[in-house]
């Protein structure tokens, strides 16, 4: 797909990786604007094509009392405000068929969660909006099998599709990233590496997912070295207080250092 077709996506001619980053969930307007302002500033300084990420609702939770959102329309309006105020495209994930048309009124990229990427009707509904579709590879799927998920989008008449790898289940409580899958999936679509969800430790007895955020840079550097097109990072100014996925988020004050290093590494890879 042509990344320059994404509305407001800057620096696409710079040969840098592109970035999907933001909080796991939209918890309120002030937090979304604060995170977007910080990340947009970093992306501008480093000339990274940037898409702001935030879930307007969280449907896949371990416990019934887990935070699911502040209200669909309210969160989507915040995403639209971020886009208009900072001049960046936005991405959010959808969980039901009806979410596709609703979210497409507010955001530029529709994301299919990993657990739902085999749900044909959901993928086709996203494709039919004409928006870019970001397919997260199922933790249970091989890289080769993602060609069928991509085909569901392209066969619907939409060529704007991305694949995001977020690790593969390794037992009940761990994930691994198989970097052999990067060149395989790049045959089908641009590949993004989710360097925060790949370090989750799900299925904890407490019902709260754990994580290994100290390994984010390790995974990200390996991804750049193996040729991923984009990096996906969930970040928050106070991960400990985040209402979703705080255990594997990158603290916002560590983001610029990481992206600076990754940009330098990408330049080296480009010159190799």
TrEMBL record:
Tell me which residues make up the DAHP synthetase I/KDSA domain: 14-267
Q: Which GO terms describe its molecular function?
A: 3-deoxy-8-phosphooctulonate synthase activity
Alphabetical keyword list: Cytoplasm, Transferase
**Pfam families in the cross-refs:** DAHP_synth_1
Q: Which pathway does the database say it acts in?
A: Bacterial outer membrane biogenesis; lipopolysaccharide biosynthesis; Carbohydrate biosynthesis; 3-deoxy-D-manno-octulosonate biosynthesis; 3-deoxy-D-manno-octulosonate from D-ribulose 5-phosphate: step 2/3
Q: Which InterPro entries match?
A: Aldolase_TIM (IPR013785), DAHP1/KDSA (IPR006218), KDO8P_synthase (IPR006269)
| EC number(s) per entry | 2.5.1.55
Where in or outside the cell?
A: Cytoplasm
Enzyme class, spelled out: transferase
SUPFAM superfamilies according to UniProt:
Aldolase
Q: Does the keyword Hydrolase apply?
A: no
Q: Which transformation does this protein catalyse, written as a reaction?
A: D-arabinose 5-phosphate + phosphoenolpyruvate + H2O = 3-deoxy-alpha-D-manno-2-octulosonate-8-phosphate + phosphate
- Family stated for the protein in its record: Belongs to the KdsA family.
Identify the PANTHER family for this entry: PHOSPHO-2-DEHYDRO-3-DEOXYHEPTONATE ALDOLASE
What is this protein's record name?
A: 3-deoxy-8-phosphooctulonate synthase
Per the UniProt entry, what species is this protein from, by scientific name? Robiginitalea marina
Taxonomic lineage per UniProt? Bacteria, Pseudomonadati, Bacteroidota, Flavobacteriia, Flavobacteriales
């Amino acid at each position: 797909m042509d990344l320059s077709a994404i509305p407001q996506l800057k620096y696409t001619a710079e040969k840098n990786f592109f970035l999907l980053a933001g909080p796991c969930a939209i918890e309120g307007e002030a937090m979304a604007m604060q995170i977007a302002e910080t990340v947009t500033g970093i992306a501008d300084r480093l000339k990274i094509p940037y898409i702001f990420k935030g879930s307007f609702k969280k449907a896949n939770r371990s416990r019934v009392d887990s935070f699911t959102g502040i209200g669909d329309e309210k969160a989507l309006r915040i995403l639209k405000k971020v886009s208009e105020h900072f001049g960046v495209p936005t991405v959010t994930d959808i969980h039901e068929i009806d979410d596709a048309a609703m979210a497409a009124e507010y955001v530029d990229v529709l994301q299919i969660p990993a657990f739902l990427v085999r749900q044909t009707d959901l993928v086709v509904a996203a494709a039919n909006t004409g928006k870019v579709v970001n397919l997260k590879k199922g933790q249970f799927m091989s890289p080769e099998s993602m060609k069928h998920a991509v085909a569901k989008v392209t066969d619907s008449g939409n060529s704007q599709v991305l694949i995001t790898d977020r690790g593969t289940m390794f037992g009940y409580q761990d994930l691994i990233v198989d970097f052999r899958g990067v060149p395989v999936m790049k045959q089908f679509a641009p590949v993004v590496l989710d360097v925060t969800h790949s370090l989750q430790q799900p299925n904890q007895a407490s019902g709260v997912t754990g994580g290994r955020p100290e390994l984010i840079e390790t995974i990200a550097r390996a991804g750049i070295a193996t040729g991923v097109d984009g990096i996906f990072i969930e970040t928050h100014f106070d991960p400990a207080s985040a209402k979703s996925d705080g255990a594997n988020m990158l603290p916002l004050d560590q983001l610029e250092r990481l992206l600076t290093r990754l940009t330098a590494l990408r330049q080296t890879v480009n010159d190799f």
